Amino acid sequence: MKSIKILFIIIITSIVLTGCWDSVEINKREYIFAVGIDKNAKNLTFTSEIPKINEGSEEQRLVYTKDCINFADFYATSYLHSEKVISDRLMQVIVLGEDLARDSEAVKRIFDEIQRSPQMNRRVKICIAKGKAQDIINTEIPHNPIVGRFLSEMLIKLKRESYQDIYTFDEAILDLGKTGNAMIPVAEINDKSLKVERAGVFKEYELIGFLEPEEVSSIMVLLNPSKATIRNVNITVEDTNVSLGAVDITMTKKMDLSNDKLKVDYYVTLYSYIDSFIIGSNKLEDQSYLNKIKEEAIKNILMVSEKTLDKLQNSYRADLLKIKEDLYKYHKQDYEKIADKYDEIFEAADINIHLDMVIKSTGLVK
User: Fold this and answer.
1) The pTM is what?
2) What pLDDT, on a 0 to 100 scale, did the predictor assign at position 357?
3) How far apart are alpha carbons 162 and 153 in whole angstroms?
4) pLDDT, tens digit, for every residue of 195-227?
5) Spatial CB neighbours of 177, under 8 Å, sequence gap ≥ 6
6) Residue-wise DSSP of 39-73
7) 53-70 as b/e, with b when 16 or more CB fall inside 10 Å?
8) Bridge partners for 86 per DSSP
């Protein structure tokens, strides 16, 4: 009996000491930082970026392009064409090509594969290419040559400063699952670099259009006024150029749903300061002139906001303002009565923005 116990201990110890039988040394791996996915005539084109980490350089990269059926086929093909093991554990960003993003079935399949992946982080960043994702991945950025790192840092910054609503796959799939709509950042080639200013409008996993930077800003103010970042408002008053910066934004919201009629009122107050004027002019000491600045600024902001609302309601019929979510939370019984026809209700909704402005500082020194 004692000899059996000793033998058992020896066997267990030998198994433990051998470690993982299928482990792979780090220098035998290639880590994908970014992958772009486009549609081709038959299937999909995957463009992957792999930094030369194992060669001691974080500023050089390899870019591979392969035509595959899906992610699984891409990994299998990559495995057979390289002496190293392909890993997506360090994946920073996935870029969907514009043509692919307009194909809801293709997007659903890709999103399903990402969710099922045992390795890929669901917090991987996601964006849409204006054009081909392959062109985005192939872009040579002199000051930051790793595209996956560049886009990752850019998307984190835009999310942190509330320029964009979504920056990860997890957020995109959550919004599409809850409301059927999502606003996903758009990556574009900008001279010898990339830029992320616009957003793609997704409805039921299909890209249906784009929003300009000022339209994205208008939506972000209504979604999260306390954190939203507003660009300077540039206007002309009495032949003088005036620029106003935003200090703070406060907002209250009133919603009413009755007899299939939806009414939403946003009451927004923008606290601002004069950021640019003309040195030597004393016009800012005149309250009537300040009132004209306020009126022109409010007119300018509301023009963009109303254009954005019209696009959401009539062109896209996409509730990116998440009114549906608020109705479900705070008016659940009324919402459940119109849930099946919410798109029609939203399109016909009476949505109004009531804007007030307080100029807290003119910048005058007396």
Assistant:
1) 0.86
2) 96
3) 14
4) 999 999 999 999 999 999 999 999 999 999 988
5) none
6) E-SSSEEEEEEEE-GGGT-SS-EEEEEEEESSHHH
7) beeeeeeebeebeeebeb
8) 30
